[in-house]
Structure formats: structure tokens, C-alpha cells
Amino acid sequence: MPVIYLFGYPLGHSISPAMQNAALRARRIGGTRYEKLPLPPERMDDMLTALRVPQCLGANVTVPHKQSIMPRLDELTDLARHIGAVNTIVKRDGRLVGDNTDAYGFAETMRTHGVPLHGTRAAILGAGGAAAAAAYALAEQGAREIVLLNRTLARGIELADRLNPRFPQLELAINDWDALPYMKLVINATSVGMAPHGDQSPLSNLATLAADVVVFDLVYNPPITRLMRDAAGRGLRSIGGLDMLVYQGARAFELWTRQTAPVEIMRDAAARALE
Ligand code: ATR
Asked: What is this structure's pTM?
């Protein structure tokens, strides 16, 4: 039977199987199933073996393999290379192609919520794979300025160094917390606030944020994070991470199956799996 894997470790929390299997059923894609394969980093060879089986159509990749799997694949798309992380693997004529659908998920979420990216000033909390995808999408859409705010300075510098040559017009700053009042968009791309630590926030003080800022928390579990609650308490607009999860999954579904993704069915299944 055709199979699509989800690689990560651990994977207990993932709602992608509910979302992708609902989409496969809705499109009547005969017998194909989407399955978790929770393997630790030392079992990377087993992931590659599973991918090479002819019945395997591809995979999603999540923490901690998004970067480490890259050199083991046959090809990388330009997007995956520039973002520096793979979240989707597609089989093309038996070759394993590493791609990234997170940047699309980010841009599509902003588009559907009517948040303009062209000319904007955005702060990104974090500098990992999710932050890189958000930064890339912002830069592609013509953002004016990105301020990277990360606990580990070196990772912020690494991400800025990857963005700089490709987007020379983009104003980039690292760990400039004083810039927060000038931002139109504040994005949480850290894991802070994720269940079971839903009482935590990556931003302790929202007092300096502009009244018209949009706070976008990439965390989707819980659906309303502490950061979003704090933002609402100050009358600020906020958006949670569920839509980005759905849109990145929808793009991956289309790459594997070459069929249009049933986005509303995927959103309903994902939301139900979170209940
Ligand atoms: P992902 O692919 O989901 O982005 P990741 O690459 O592991 O995952 O990145 C996680 C991000 O969350 C990083 O920016 C990390 O900061 P460091 O680079 O300093 O590790 C950030 N992060 C995780 N836990 C954090 C915490 N308790 N406080 C602040 N930042 C945190």
C-alpha cells in the first residue's frame, strides 16, 4: 500500500496524521496512508531505507531531523536550500527531493488574514527552521525590515548571513529589542508557549508594541497561547499557528499526490485532533 511518513522524535503530539489522512480519504486516494515513524537521530539510516521503498511517496520531516536529513537526500529545492531546512520530501522518479512548504504556509496565512507583507517591518522571535521559513517568506514578499530576536545570538547571525546575499535590499537587525515599538508584525517562531508549557510566553512585556501591530504565534497547541491572550488583553490583534500548519500541509499534500488539497477538510480535522 502507498505510504507517506512523518519523521520526527518524539511525535506523540502531532496532529498531521489526522489532517493528512482526512485529506487522502476526501480525495479518495486509494489506500494511501500517512503514518508516524518516530525515530531518533541515530536511526537516520532506517528513515532513508523506509523512503527508498517503492510504495513510499514521500514524507514530512519535523524536529529534530529538519536539517540533519538534508545531506542524505538526492536533491534539494532552491527554497529548502535557502531556508536551510526540509519539512517535506517528495519522490520524483525514485529520487528523494527535499523541499520546504513552511514559507508557503506562512505567506498564505498572512494573505488569507489580510496582513500585508510588502514594505512591512517584522520582528521574528527565534532563529530555527520555522523562523527561517517566516523570514524567507517575508523577504520574498518584499518586507522592508526584519529584526531577528533569538536567545542564542550565533543562530540569529547565521540566519541573517543566509538572508543577506539573497535579499540585499532587506534591512536586517539581530537582537535589537529596542526596535519592537516600530514593528507592524511580531512573530513567535520559538517553541515557547507550546503545550504542556502553555503558561509561558516568549515576550514578557507587550507594553511597548504599537497599537496596530499584528502578533502571529506559530504555536498551534494550545490554539490560544499565552502570548495571544496577553496581546488580546492589550487590545492587540493576534493570529494562532493552526492556519500555517494547515497551509504547509496542504502544499505538501499537493506535491505528493498532484491533486488539489481539500483545505477546509484539513483544517477541520486538525482542529478536531487538537480538542
Ligand atoms: P523549529 O524547526 O520548530 O524552528 P528549532 O530549529 O529547534 O525548531 O528552533 C527552536 C527555536 O526556539 C530556536 O530559535 C530556539 O532558540 P535557540 O536558538 O536559542 O535554541 C527557540 N527556543 C526554544 N526554547 C526556548 C526558550 N526556552 N527560550 C527562548 N527561545 C527558545
From this structure: 0.97
